[in-house]
Amino acid sequence: MKPVAPAAVVAAAGAARADAAAERDAAGDDDAGAIRWSDALSAAALLAVDPQALGGVRLRMGAGALRDAWFAHLRSFLDADTALRRVPASVDEARLVGGIDLAATLRCGRPVAEQGLLAQSDQGVLVVPMAERMRPVTAALMAAVLDEGALRMERDGFSLLAPARLAVIACDEGLAADELPPPALLERLALWLDLGAVQGRAAALAEALVPPPEPEQLRAARACLAGVAVPPQLHEALCRACTALGIDSLRVPLLALRAARAAAALAGAASCGPEHAALATRLVIAPRARQLPAAADPGEEGEEGTQGEQSPPDPAPGEENAARTPDDAAARDDPGISVDDPAALAEIVLEAARAALPADLLAQISRGALRRGAGATPGRTGVQLRSKLRGRPVGVRRGELRGGARLHVLETLRSAAPWQSIRGRAPGAVAMCPQRLEVRREDFRVVRYSQRTQTTVIFVVDASGSAALHRLAEAKGAVELFLADCYVRRDQVALIAFRGRAAELLLPPTRSLARARRCLAGVPGGGGTPIAAGLRMAAGVADAVRRRGDVPLLVLLTDGKANVALDGTGGREQAAADALAMARALRATAIRALLVDFAPRMQVEAQALAREAGARYLALPRADAALVAGAVRSVRAQIR
Amino acid sequence: MATAALHAHPPQTSPAPFPFSAIVGQDEMKLALLAASVDPSIGGVLVIGDRGTGKSTGVRALAALLPRMRVVLGCPYHCAPDKVAGLCGACKGGTAKAPKSVLTPVSVVDLPLGATEDRVAGALDLERALSEGVKAFEPGLLARANRGFLYIDEVNLLEDHLVDLLLDVAASGENIVEREGISVRHPARFVLVGSGNPEEGELRPQLLDRFGLAVEVRTPTDIAARVEVVRRRDDFDRDPAAFRARWEAQETALRKQIEAARRRLPEVVAPDAALERAAQLCLKLGTDGLRGELTLIRAARAVAALDGDKRVEDRHLQRVARIALRHRLRRDPLDETGSAPRIERALAETFGS
Known about the structure:
The structure holds two protein chains of two kinds. By secondary structure, chain A is an alpha/beta fold. Chain A contains 27 helices and 17 strands. In chain A, the strands form five sheets. A six-stranded mixed sheet of chain A has the order 14-13-12-15-16-17, with helices on both faces. The longest helix of chain A has 26 residues, at about 25-50. The relative contact order of chain A is 0.08. Chain B has two domains: about 20-70 and about 105-220, Rossmann fold, CATH 3.40.50; about 265-350, Magnesium chelatase subunit I, C-Terminal domain (Helicase, Ruva Protein, domain 3, Orthogonal Bundle). Chain B has 14 helices and twelve strands. Chain B has helices at about 25-40, 55-65, 90, 115-120, 125-130, 140-145, 160-170, 205-210, 225-240, 240-265, 270-285, 290-305, 315-325, 340-350; strands at about 5, 45-50, 70, 100-105, 110, 125, 135-140, 150, 175-180, 180-185, 190-195, 210-215. Chain B has a five-stranded parallel sheet. In chain B, a hairpin with a 2-residue loop joins strand 9 and strand 10 (about 180-185). At the A-B interface, helix 5, strand 4, helix 8, strand 6 and strand 7 of A face strand 1, helix 4, strand 6, helix 5 and helix 9 of B. Strand 4 (about 115) of chain A pairs antiparallel with strand 1 (about 5) of chain B, so a sheet runs across the interface.
């Protein structure tokens, strides 16, 4: 399979389609799908050519037959010696990095190290299903290995640097836009594939038209990879494409360069041509776009430039763009185009990127989801999983070596020691070495850790029209003062706003207060006052916080004048009754709460609400910083 | 299950890193690392920046750049033969004669994520305990980092108990191990270098404070510089040895500059005028405590020494003010735009514009 394949696919697909006009729409989908699938197979082939340099693949699609098919192809492309190994995203550090092999240690009577998965997978490919569930620490470990090609292990008395040249395939099965594998890992995986929309028959179509490469071809590609020449303009073309698409990281053009080189090797070319650069751009650069490229120089690009600019408002620009790829690519593949002109090469690359931009990019940009600097893992980075490994050691207890508990060697040996003479005589005991220490399961002592529980402050902000419009800014100011206090105490914060018909969780619990502040600044005001909905959501978040072992604290900012009931309908009476009912439910859960009444005059409704919720009431007649700060401190003192 | 042969010795060094002098731009990071290697008492360097900005590249490059140092032969803590103060127990209690010494590369020790406390602080030598029944101390990473650098990538993901340990050791310059029936204390003076991404979580204020200099790295925005970064990195990846050879002259020159600066450092004076300027600047910025002023002056002296100057002038202070004070402004975590403009304003007011 040559990287120019998509053009061929669609040319043929177009011909096949001509006699089936009735199925036009379906065929259009199939075209786009066929191109994607063909690119996906190219990506698999590129990975097989140079796995370590490319780092790996981000495979965004659900589990299923099609994904299995992709992996089957990858398996057939890879060198027979290269192992594909599945690793759960929840793998713990000890398994990943290695450490002491307790069984062997006890058997041999001397410390024996156990290799972790990363070192075991040297020269192999790690496959991580459900990578969106991966913890940042796991991702950072993998990232370090991808960067260095080696694993540093400093654990359990062992210190070693083991080769770990591997590639990672992160199966991204996240449904929500913000459900992403950790960015530190994604950053290092060159090839990003989004195959969620590809249908089986599109894949079949692509494969029928473009036969996958033979093992022989891949072997040849691997052999000639080092000799592939890169025209000096290519660096600049790739950098320009990245800049045009708002990609800051310099790893991206570098990875694209490596992909282009692998593509040239796969095609048996002696040097990287425009078509290889275009494929690399489609697979590496375009999926990472954070902005739409600016209009091309009109003199140079003319038609296509404006077309690229006009298509985004289209409901499904991606489909159309993708469908457009073949013609452009075909035109570009014309050998008449000179590679020597840097501007022309840059334009080819950028055009390839434009054509392959994700379909929902515009929507994401308008939502601000791709805003630079905005956290890519909202709410997850601050959440630390508890384990038996964290915190301060506070002693030793008998216990099983399960769930990552850490063995206290000396205490274990100490507890085993008195029994040695008896065990040595027992029938069936190993009699090879009389001095050997025999340690049994009941001797195991594990270290106990204690960890201070953490407080998560959940802000519930009334952003409705009644209370807020003129007071919202002051409420925000008050929350900022609270935030400063949270910062000092290293609390986590969560932010809920309610207005209109419902409440919205703007920020799940996080330790990043800068993000909380940013989030807060973006809260719009206006609409009804669904206090009950806000309370219900707050109770849900508080419950989740509690389940994690943290202490929730609610801070509710409102004037207490509910006018939207729990079911979203208007009506003051029902709304007030619902709010009070939710407040009583909250009280039953014994969650500590503080109600800040920010109406110009104290409101009886707010007072009633505070009473029912068992919350402390604080009137905020004017945004008086000193008063609020004092109140916060006293409430905190009470809660601690 | 595959098992690795046991070895408790320092691991073999990783392949030669990217040359320090070939790093494009990132002047602030380079200045901070050079200043810290001229005068380790400045304290550590914190490198904060987005992904793909070359944080680790810079720190690892430093390892290959640093001039060799003289250490007592066979001492696990790299004791300096000419300094009696700060010797480890073994070297102190040795014979009256000057111990044998060798020149070794300065250690830049990686503290990898997932490291356990016993390997960081040192612990009972398990093998000898189990096989010979001897209670011996197995030195950890802190021992290896003595008189060198300790590098923590993704410093904000470090486990809390390790952070506590590091804070304690960095403050006292001594590592005290009381565990598993052993009781050892040994010198552990090192330059702590941390790098991290602000999006991965915030750093504990105590740890932040422990770093003498804080650097913010960004990718260059200018396209020519970006192209140059990619080109050099690609050249390096394809043939590291040839690339290093091409940059050897610059590396040597830089190494000589560091050596000369170290020799010159004791003679560099900070006149009263400079001290006053530093105090004014810190007062304007409302930095907490005296540590800011001290670091500012020390960093300015190191930079003066690097420049070949004999006294600290305003220009030296101006060059290091941002990196020395950025992380010490009175904390207002909610003010994102805060620190940079505040420092610029204070600089303009202090030094006139």
